[in-house]
Here is the input.
Amino acid sequence: MKVRDLGEYPLVAKLCERLERTFGFDKRVLVGLGDDAAVLEIDGVKVVLTIDTQLENAHFRLRWMPPFDLGWKSIAISISDVVAMGGKPVAALLGLGLTGDEPVSFVDEFYDGAIAICQSMGTLLLGGDTVRSPIGLMVSSVVIGIVEGEPFRRNGAKVGDEIIVTGFLGESAAGFWLLEQNISAAQTDPMLSKCIERFRRPTPRLNAIPILHSFPVHAAIDISDGLVIDAQRMAAASKVQIVIDLPNLPLSQALKEAAIVVDKDAMALALTGGEDYELLISVPSSVSSEICKVLVANGIPAHQIGLVSAAHEDGKVLGKQLDGMLKTLSGGFQHF
Here is the structure.
């Protein structure tokens, strides 16, 4: 059997099972496989570790991804994982695979972007590795963080919880299609350029973490591959059924205008487009409204978009339509 026949997530589950069997017994491991990041307790300090890899023509194209933005995004997506665990990023490492034909200025600008996001997030960029990559540009980012208090997990959602999402969904996916379709107006139209900015330079919701730690958060995940597939991961880890109230999804005017230009459905982009790097959290219904209120008061858009409706052994995500009808939701980014 080939990897593409097995599929990305069965492969990941297979590897996780093997590693859990081999190393999961270690008492230093607070959060092991199957979450946004790992958490180890070392001398009383809860350390968060995560890694992400991006490949040219799989995650980006050099014709529309400036090196500054690539450097920024490479670090940002890993910081987002640390944030989803309730952590604060402390240090980062970068692995950079180059063909050798790139101008030195390309590398300088790439690091300008990586340094900029690290400085904005209070994170040290401490080096990494550089290798030759004959098949195109490759970037791997490692971010190490710390958690004060208990780490957030995917597996704690409880029946009766309400589901909250930060920010606005789908803008990043719309930005991708604007770039992919080479829409010239996207460079000058403020609504369209906002979507491109969301795709090229995501900003992790680090400023939400102190607020969320002051409330009971039962489960959390960052939305990287799409709302539906990431909600499904939370539902499966928690063994619950999540119902998304589709009319309550936060669809911005920028998304709606961009969706028309690229001939895509705005709702579909919000549900399955991915690369939003927003937080999806499950909280007791008694504090849901207050959490949204405090987040908004601190400049963080937040929306109640659903609830945990029932226990479900395998995890399930449904969409509730305007007429109250429920439908199974599916879709999102997978590598294989």
The chain has eleven helices and 13 strands.
